[in-house]
Amino acid sequence: MGIPSDSIAFRDVMADILRLPDETLAMSYVYSNRYKRFLSASDASDLLDPYVPSKSTESPRRLREIILPAHRILRLAGDSAARLVSDFAAPLIIPSTQYDALRATLVQAELLLLRVLGFDLRSSLPWQYLPRYLERALADITNVAEDYETWGKEEREEYGVVTFMETGIGKACRVKAIEACKNYQLANLFPARAVALACVYVSMEERRMEAPENAAKWVERIASGKVDAEDFAAVCDELRKLRWQTEQE
Questions:
Q1: How far apart are the C-alpha atoms of 106 and 87, rounded to whole Å?
Q2: In the chain, which residue ranges form alpha helices assigned H by DSSP?
Q3: C-alpha separations of 210 from 38, 131, 137, 153, 198 in Å
Q4: Which of 22, 97, 107, 8 is nearest to 66 (CA)?
Q5: Residue 130 half-sphere exposure, CB side, CA atoms within 13 Å?
Q6: Entry pTM
Q7: Tens-place pLDDT, residues 167-186
Q8: C-alpha–C-alpha distance, residues 209 and 141, integer Å
Q9: Integer Cα distance of 187 and 26 in angstroms
């Protein structure tokens, strides 16, 4: 088993093992990018295991739940990663001096991260705004269709009516939001509202779903004047660039 190629891949694997929600994974990207900004460097140490974001997004995991699978992944790494796993040759035993040392290291990393964040974990994520913006954006189309919002819960379940965020475009918006949180610029320089609105717009764009007015008026209407048009345009450009880079891989 090869070790994940970088810190993002390692974090993704850990999130899968711990069955963490997308919001927790995205928050870990946001914290990581803020730590990089604190260091003013692009090669910051990877302190962002899932521990802190799992607590701030109300999906807490114990230190033991994180340390054991992380240690196993590193222990099973190939020879090419020997420099990373020299201290992980043997299985981890609890209790043991090695486990205590790893636990203490993780706690110290958490304290350092909290100081970097100013002990304020209340970072906004695009998820807070996606459902509302998506519903408003699709209203131009759905207002001529059945109004499923008036249906009761039992009726929706009987006929398999999903929420906007469970539709194809809703899932596409969520994927874009995660990619945005991974991006240093988008995570640090733009408000979550602008990122969420751009995720909706670019997802609609990819589906050839055109807004009924120009972009500036659309932004004003959908976001109720709470998103700057220039921020919105910059985030859209960055999301298109990320999509192009993915297509080239």
A1: 15
A2: 7-18, 22-39, 51-56, 63-75, 82-85, 97-116, 130-142, 153-159, 168-182, 184-189, 192-206, 215-222, 229-248
A3: 39, 19, 10, 31, 14
A4: 107
A5: 26
A6: 0.68
A7: 889 999 999 999 998 888 88
A8: 9
A9: 10
